[in-house]
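Bumping with the actual sequence this time:
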Amino acid sequence: MKHAVAEFSVVADFAPTGDQPQAIQKLAQGLKAGAQRLTLEGVTGSGKTFTMANVIREWGRPAIIISHNKTLAAQLFAELKGFFPHNAVEYFISYYDYYQPEAYIPQTDTYIEKDASINDEIERYRLGATNALLGRRDVVIVASVSCIYGLGSPEDYRTMLVDIVPGETLGRDAMLERLVDIQYTRNDYEPQPGTFRVRGDCVDIFPSYETTGIRVDFFGDDVEDIREFDPVSGKTKVRLPRAIISPAKHFVMPKERIEASIGRISAELDERLAELERQNKLLEAQRLRQRTEFDLEMLRELGYCNGIENYSRHLAGRAAGEPPACLLDYFDGEFLTIIDESHVTLPQLRAMYNGDQARKQTLVEHGFRLPSAKDNRPLNFDEFLEKVGPIVFASATPSAYERQVSEVTAEQVLRPTGLLDPPVEVRPLEGQIDDLMEEIRRAAEKGDRVLVTTLTKRSAEDLTAYLRETGIRVEYLHSDIDAIQRVEILGRLRK
């Protein structure tokens, strides 16, 4: 079903130039004519992001741009936010600063428990992305490949929204119960995203996807007033005619759904235990019984357990093998998918499923998880293609796949700046650090910046320490630095 066209407005100090105008026209006309697979083949520095923005404006539908790493996604997010200041541009990447998945190594009988560190700021961005998709059409999401991993059901997410309107009879305590149901917690002393505080007939809500708060004043059981306010100063920013509070987490569901799922998990446990015992795998059966019964007890008492995502198939009521809900399911109607650096991103999208299944199969075989845990997974490539509509592949070097499936290809060879590719020089290994320092000094005298690449993370850190001792302003950048800090370092490089 096609929805109404969204209004996108591109704001920039420059107009399309070079090969950009014809590329924009060719892609936009192709989309309007019904083309489902298109390619933007553009050299580095030709302004592909600006072309993407104008294609989104011409097409007039929500869009998701998928990048192969967090740093590039952050750069795209910053650029598109500048091009679309009047529209919702959101950021959706993995919220882990550190992630060690659950695993078992049979050769050494080593079980590795899941360990992770969640970045609260990135979680706010993720929740902001789904919240925007629920409320408006003029949305652009910049995402990493984590967008194909399981997320809470959008139907449950929509069902559990808390809608507050001035003048309605709601009841303060009834509203607090509903906030708790969508995983908000009470904190009267230190306001944080995903919490609320109560002061008499005044309730302050701090949505997990905003930096501002919502103040709801009651007169008896009636909602008297709703205001958006600054959590630091407490000053009112604007009075609101309505407030819709989205859940504090993506994984939310009604209590009755959890109770029903316990029966399904128990039934699968009995079936799997019988299978293991027939195979004389008594150690595995004992291990599975002990672990699963502990999780079931936690679900009964608390509505939650560690590793609850491994029971997501039962909790969501999905059939075996059915793909999980993911970010793509939060789009309402037709949307555009742009795969940036597609020659790198597409292989990543294909590889995620197989790697995940191999690890989970080992856990299942040795009694650490029920077979249904394998359905807590990323989409496979065919499932990804089924969930999306038209796709634009953007790359300087499209692979054979993009060339084969694309109905429209637009080339972008001329750079708007007119710059050519820089000459490449090969210099001797001997004296390379002194040579590097001389080049850095020359660049610094002209007010330029320098980017140095090394073979390893350790080399980057050691070279940074050495250059810093000589008085050079320098930072190292690699994957051990969290996503937000990487963006800050790149920002300092640009300035």
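The tokens above came from a reply further down the thread. The chain has four domains: 20-155+319-412, 162-245, 255-302, 432-494.
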